Amino acid sequence: PPFLVVVPLSTLPNWKRELEQWAPQLNAVMYIGSKEDRKVIRKHEFDPEGRKVQLFDVLCTSYEVALTDINMLSRIKWGSLIVDEGHRLKNDKSHLFVALEGLKVSHKVLMTGTPLQNNLEELFILMSFLTKTRSREGRRGGQCFPTAQEFDEECQTKTTEEKVKRLHELLAPHVLRRLKKDQDLSILPKIERVVKVTLSAVQREYYAACLTKNFRVLCGKDKEHRTVSIKNIFMQLRKCCNHAYLFDSARPPSETDADAHELLVSASGKLELLEQLLAELQKGGHRVLIFSQFTMMLDIMEEYLTGAGLNYLRMDGSVMSEERQRRIDSFNERS
């Protein structure tokens, strides 16, 4: 029987690449696209010439397509169901949980780095999804993993240490952990350095103005809007610390591109330090990854790198998955 792999849409290209690299002998089909695209895939791969036999070995699809075409997928007897980011199934009332639980599957695998997120009940729901079986008539069959309530009843007289030990005993036959220390990564150890940077003159000006403007809220004198205002004030201060140009009024007029570039750098203590670091890193032939939580800051970085004549690639939420993978490949291939 074939394998069904259900994953986040953004990871599908990577699943395709990995299957091609590590299992080229398998016919792996990416079941995505428009309604018409999927109809063509079903015609050629699900039921070619009406023979009711699947030509594919692995079918990879997204959560959304799996939900949309669950009736089609339910007609196939699957050898295994693999769900990436399996903690998406922590709610047994969700549409995705109910849909995937109804499939005819011999074996299930949930892949997740966070099986326990909020409470034990969610973990027990994941284990319930894995261990429930179905009879030939499609009714829910036996269950070899207890419910959260049954676990609580069993351990109500136990100490916390005994409860943890019992939970580990229950999980042991079902969980395979892949630890970093067990892998031969062949990479250098990470060295983390925190460098404190002073604000530029214009950053200090805007930082002080923000504090002065919101003095009453910060001192607790405006309690009515305190919760909302404090969050907004912190966000404004974070913007000050990144770059003054995150405020439109901070950008002065300039006559030439060279002047504009110089003002751009001098308006941020972080950018002044980055300019020095990039110069040294470029001499050593290094490639550099720069992260920011603000897309507006990435816009400023693009402006700086263009002005400095440095080649760069940008990735944010607006970049489609296939293009994102191309940019990753391009970055990795550069010597």
From TrEMBL:
PANTHER family recorded: CHROMODOMAIN-HELICASE-DNA-BINDING PROTEIN 3-RELATED (PTHR45623:SF17), CHROMODOMAIN-HELICASE-DNA-BINDING PROTEIN 3-RELATED-RELATED (PTHR45623)
Organism of origin: Hemiselmis andersenii
Domain of life (superkingdom): Eukaryota
Keywords: Hydrolase, Nucleus
GO MF annotation list: ATP binding; ATP hydrolysis activity; ATP-dependent chromatin remodeler activity; chromatin binding; DNA binding; histone binding
Pfam families in alphabetical order: Helicase_C (PF00271), SNF2-rel_dom (PF00176)
InterPro entries cross-referenced by the UniProt entry: Helicase_ATP-bd, Helicase_C-like, P-loop_NTPase, SNF2-like_sf, SNF2/RAD54-like_C, SNF2_N
Location in or out of the cell: Nucleus
Alphabetical list of Gene3D superfamilies matching this protein: P-loop containing nucleotide triphosphate hydrolases, Tandem AAA-ATPase domain
Residues of the Helicase ATP-binding domain: 1-133
Signal peptide: none
CC terms in the record's Gene Ontology section: chromatin; nucleus
Name of the protein: Helicase ATP-binding domain-containing protein
Main location: nucleus
